[in-house]
Structure formats: C-alpha cells, structure tokens
Automatic annotation (TrEMBL):
This is PACE efflux transporter. The lineage of its organism: Bacteria, Pseudomonadati, Pseudomonadota, Gammaproteobacteria, Oceanospirillales. NCBIfam families: PACE_transport (NF033664). The chain crosses the membrane at residues 18-37, 43-64, 85-108, 114-136. Keywords: Membrane, Transmembrane, Transmembrane helix. Residues 8-68, 79-141 form the Chlorhexidine efflux transporter domain. It comes from the Bacteria.
C-alpha cells in the first residue's frame, strides 16, 4: 500500500507567496519605471496593488495545482521541468487576465499598449516564477512519510 503524498502547510504556502511577491516587486517596480519613463512611486504603488492581488491568486492557484499533482500521483515539490513550465504558464495566464484591466485604467494605456507591456512582463515573470519555485522547493522541501521497512 502506498503512503499519501504530503503537500505544503498553510503557513508554508503563505511564506512562499509573500517571499515570491516581495522579491518580484523589488525587481519589477524599478524596471517598469525605466521602461515606461514614469515615476517609481506611481509604478511602485501599482506593483504593490498588483502584488496583493497576485498573492491571493498565487495562494489559491498553487493550492489547486498541488492538489491536481497529488490526484495524478505526483509529489508537487518534485515536479519535472515540463510540469514547472505548465505551472508557470498557467499562473501567468490567470494573472494577466486579472491584471490587464487594472493596468489599462491605472496607467491610461490602450489595450494594445498594455498587452505589449504585459508580453514583456509575462516573459520575465514566467522565468522568475520557474526559477523561484524551483529554488524554493530545494530550500524548503516537504518531507514525505516513508513506509516502515521490516
């Protein structure tokens, strides 16, 4: 009989989400300021609002994705590269769909300007997501219960 797969605790998920967003805001706010030639305070405020929204989505998305992995018989912290790419791409699609209207309104951009900006950000954030989660899983693995040996 196989042992159940252990997933991340609620506190671990909160730590993951907060760390992910703090590091991302620290990287993106200054980059967006330079790219858009706007004040870092204005873009920092937008980044924080987007970050708070993303934290909630990230928490729910990762919880759901981990459960999907478990249903497939996979240990979430041991995802292969393909699984990590699917995870990162799916998260970015959800975040884009929920962020574009806010970005358009906040920055007064057209949908095409916002989409172009978002394509650049999506590429950067997807790479960041892939690397962050891979490193996080190595730094904070979830120990699996081992069956007793006779």
């Amino acid at each position: 009989m196989s042992q159940p797969i252990v997933t991340r605790s609620s506190m671990d998920r909160i730590r993951h989400t907060v760390m992910f967003e703090v590091f991302l805001v620290m990287i993106l706010a200054p980059l967006m300021s330079v790219m858009l030639d706007r004040g870092v305070v204005e873009l920092g405020a937008l980044a924080i609002v987007l970050s708070l929204k993303a934290m909630l989505i990230n928490l729910l998305y990762n919880y759901g994705f981990d459960h999907w992995d478990v249903k497939q018989g996979r240990i979430p912290t041991q995802r292969k590269l393909v699984g990590r790419i699917i995870h990162a791409a799916g998260l970015e699609l959800v975040l884009t769909a929920t962020s574009l209207p806010l970005i358009i309104w906040w920055l007064g951009l057209t949908i095409w300007q916002a989409l172009l900006m978002d394509v650049v950000m999506i590429a950067a954030v997807m790479l960041y997501t892939l690397l962050f989660n891979w490193v996080y899983d190595r730094l904070f693995p979830v120990p699996q219960t081992q069956p007793a040996t006779c």
